[in-house]
Design goal:
By secondary structure, this protein is an alpha/beta fold. The protein is 44% helix and 15% strand. The chain has helices at residues 4-28, 34-52, 55-59, 94-97, 106-118, 129-141, 155-169, 187-192, 196-199, 217-229, 255-266, 287-290, 318-321, 339-354, 357-375, 400-412, 437-453; strands at 73-77, 80-83, 88-91, 148-152, 174-178, 209-212, 234-239, 269-273, 297-300, 312-316, 383-389, 392-397, 415-416, 418-419, 426-429. Strands 4-10-9-8-7-5-6 form a 7-stranded mixed beta sheet, sandwiched between helices. Strands 1-2-3-13 form a 4-stranded mixed beta sheet. The longest helix is centred in the N-terminal third of the chain and has 25 residues, at 4-28. The chain is globular and about 70 Å long.
Length: 457
């Protein structure tokens, strides 16, 4: 005979399954009724509060007190996404740089769907063809002598793999990062990240990291010399060619070349974190090309999966990567380089090349930057600086509060922007590289209108 506990458990299982079927039926729908939209919104807010993290509700600028209104995303395409109530937004956040080829580019979706119809994941034991083919493509398109690839699922995983490769290259213990840098939040990459609020709860982090001011080659050289003097020689330098979360910080002229020369002098591994700058965002396929510098390792993710699949990669030269030859199981990942992710990445690179999207990013970015600067020309008391490269643009305000009000005001007008994680006074403009000039004009005009209405506190 069943006990009361068993009966209760059986009832719970039935309720869970009913809920699952309701959600699966919802996923099938292309359009929803007003009643269904209201249910989705309530379920989303309630479940974020009770089962995800209530902090997100106070962080999201779209959620009103008590959850009376919340913008819940539902569908996307091109340069836009649409919420559950049918309101369309021009996406100038781009998932923090995910949607370089646009939302759900049909060629990327087709590649993933075709692969899914045949095989989703690989056996882990046999040789999987798409991983080999994607690695060849990366060897062909990345700068200089970068040749071997290791595939990951995210940016922080790419950085972790790069750091481990650098550590295997030599027994030197010091890794140089820079102020305002952001390399991820897993333990190793967080050790390279510069923002104290993310680091302090987890101290001590991985030992051996030192942070020097970004753009200051003299300080970096002195740090190399000091580390060598005390027997803590530098083994690696990790840099973003253009700092993203730091506030879209462009390096000084020849800085990256000088870092390369310094690393060559000391036989130090140079890692470029191109998780945000890669895949055409800055006007070249990789930002390293802008500065004519070849790193020893390049880290990719975000847009690498075409905004359809989570995917990342580490591409390194043979000098650094060969330490994994004898035992390729020294660093592994179950899902990195899976067939679906590889299909997405291959299609994404194809779209970037066929549609000349890196070149387009340079052209549209120049137009965008000029228009934003003109819109802010009369508001020097609010806007400190507008800067960028390609379609990676930062608008820095004198105060955090101004940036927040501008961001919220633009959202109310159907344009999504957001601040950077390390420099909260700066909001980013990182739309799909496919954004139309008409959409760019809408963003510029809205920015001008919202900025004029924002009062200085």
């Amino acid at each position: 005979m069943s006990t009361k506990t068993e009966v209760k458990n059986n009832e719970q299982v039935e309720q869970v399954n009913e809920y699952i079927q309701q959600v699966l039926a919802l996923i099938e729908k292309q359009e929803v009724t007003a009643e269904e939209a209201a249910w989705v919104t309530k379920e989303t807010v309630d479940n974020f509060r009770d089962h995800v993290n209530p902090g997100f509700l106070s962080y999201r600028k779209t959620v009103t007190e008590g959850g009376q209104f919340a913008a819940v995303e539902w569908s996307d395409g091109g340069s836009c996404f649409t919420d559950i109530n049918g309101k369309k937004y021009i996406d100038c956040l781009g998932g923090f740089g995910i949607y370089n080829v646009g939302h759900r580019h049909p060629k990327v979706v087709k590649a993933v769907t075709d692969q899914l119809n045949r095989q989703a994941l690989h056996s882990q034991d046999l040789l999987d063809p798409l991983r080999a083919m994607l690695a060849k493509i990366l060897a062909d398109i990345t700068p200089g002598d970068l040749q071997y690839s290791f595939f990951t699922n995210s940016g922080t995983e790419s950085v972790e793999a790069a750091l481990k490769l650098a550590k295997m290259y030599s027994d030197r213990s010091t890794i140089i990062s820079t102020t305002r840098s952001f390399h991820g939040k897993s333990l190793g990459s967080l050790s390279g990240t510069a923002k104290g609020i993310f680091r302090k709860p987890f101290l001590p982090l991985i030992p051996g990291f030192r942070h020097v001011p970004y753009g200051d080659i003299d300080m970096m050289r002195k740090t190399f010399e000091s580390c060598a003097f005390v027997g803590e020689d530098v083994g690696a330098v990790i840099l973003e060619p253009i700092q993203g979360e730091g506030g879209i910080i462009i390096p000084p002229q020849d800085y990256l070349k000088q870092v390369r020369e310094l690393c060559d002098e000391y036989d130090v591994v140079l890692i470029f974190d191109e998780v945000q700058t890669g895949m055409g965002r800055t006007g070249k396929m990789f930002a390293a090309e802008l500065y004519e510098v070849t790193p020893d390792i390049i880290c990719l993710a975000k847009a690498f999966g075409g905004g359809v699949m989570p995917a990342g990669a580490v591409v390194a030269n043979e000098k650094v990567f060969k330490n994994l030859f004898d035992n390729p199981f020294m660093h592994t990942t179950t899902f990195g380089g899976n067939p679906l992710a590889c299909a997405a990445a291959i299609a994404t690179i194809g779209v970037l090349i066929e549609e000349n999207l890196p070149e387009r990013a340079a052209e549209v970015g120049e137009y965008f930057l000029k228009g934003l600067k003109e819109a802010a020309a009369e508001h020097g008391d609010k806007v400190l600086e507008i800067r960028g490269q390609g379609l990676m643009i930062g608008i820095e305000f004198h105060k955090d509060e101004i940036g927040y009000e501008v961001s919220k005001g633009m959202f109310d007008h159907g344009i999504l922007v957001a601040g950077t994680l390390v420099n909260s006074k700066t909001i980013r403009i990182e739309p799909p590289l496919t954004i139309s000039y008409e959409e760019v004009d809408t963003v510029i005009n809205t920015f001008k209108e919202v900025l004029a209405k924002v009062a200085i506190q």
